[in-house]
Amino acid sequence: MMGAIVLLHRWLGIAFCLLFAMWFASGMVMHFVSFPSLTEAERIAGLAPVDRARVAVAVAGAVSASGVTDATRVRLVERSDGPVAIVSGPARMRAVRATDGQDASVRSPEVALTIARGHARQRGLDAAHAAVVALADHDQWSVPNGFDRHRPLFRVALGDAAGTEVYVSSLTGEVVLDTTRSERGWNLVGSVLHWIYPTVLRSHWQLWDRVVWTLSLLALIAAVLGAVLGIVRVKMQGSRLSSPFRGWHALHHIIGLVATVFVLTWIFSGWLSMDHGRLFSRGQLTTAEAGVVYAAPDWRTALPLDQNPISPEAREVEWFAFGGDLYRRERRGVDRQVVVRPDGAESPDLGAQEVASVATRLASGCGLPSVVADHDDYPAQSTVPGTPVYRSRCGDVWLDVDGADGSVLQRLDGSRRAYRWFYTALHTLDFPVLMAHPRLRDVVIVGLCALGLVFSVTGIVIGWRRLRSTFAV
Length: 473
Prior knowledge:
Pfam families: PepSY_TM
Organism: Bradyrhizobium stylosanthis
Shape: globular
Transmembrane segments: 12-33, 211-231, 251-272, 443-464
Protein name: Putative iron-regulated membrane protein
Strand content: 15-25%
Number of domains: 3
Keywords: Membrane, Transmembrane, Transmembrane helix
């Protein structure tokens, strides 16, 4: 039995030692440089105030013109070619012009370039030398599934000193992503390596999911076998522990013993990052629950703009369904908004009673929602800084609702709460005590990943020597 474990660990270790080293090294990079995205602050900053005088199509008319029969949200934004209403439903999204209700998708590179320049100008970026460089469904930075509704994407290089590139949705004409030269460079040795994210693989989500899940599981098996051997091979010399090995083998054994808990929990939690509903729930509303929260409203009930005029400060106006009622909100800045209720009353966000009313229609036993605190054991943040996230506890199910727009950020049943600790906490070390001391967390993460990297390097050396001796001519 022990001989089989030795052989299996040896050859799995040889097969995966480089992968282990890559994961630890790239993990350190990822801690400081995240995958490129358009942050909410950047998105809002890139929007011009809505030209109220040119909005001629009522909300109900925009929904009708879009053909999205189950629409739950309509956003009004100002593009460089005029105001556009973006109508969204559970499965479809369409953009129509707010001036005449005609299709507002972007087919021309010239229009995409104008939109990108307008976005850059609002953010104070230099776009004097901007040019469209590609129209494609996927590239290295646009492979996440969240962009599926927007494909194909126009990629526009701004030609500025930072090497900024922005991506314009061909469906809505919105800027949905930006990257800089620095982000792209660091991510090639960070997220792309860590997630095994080459475009050719990641653009096929199911294949990528199966490949990475399988590789992670085999790596976990290799680590578990190594931990078993490491513990079994420990010898006692008087009152201290020692290794029976010499040289690189001894170094690998000793560092492995020191790092066993971290390596096992990190590899295990990394494997769980690919769970996607295999062992744990996904944290999403069921179809029936979503039908209650986001029930398609009667768009004809939307308050006319002549009764509730749009503020000249509004950079985005959104009508959204929540519990069957229709609300309107104006984004006036990244941290400033106004919510207009069905009766015309205004406030900065939804209230706890409104959230409670919808939650009690989903499940019984829901108490009055509480506000999720900073550094909560189960964190959740609003898209609008400073806006409360309400947590309704309905028996075993907790619902976190964004007070900004009624979105359910997460559905936490017992399985999902366990996943939060088995995956997120173990893999990113976002334990509340460490989140309260970010510098300490940085040191702990870098130190442990560096220890794991050194451990992996010893495995690489041992594996290389084994291969040379095995296949020597």
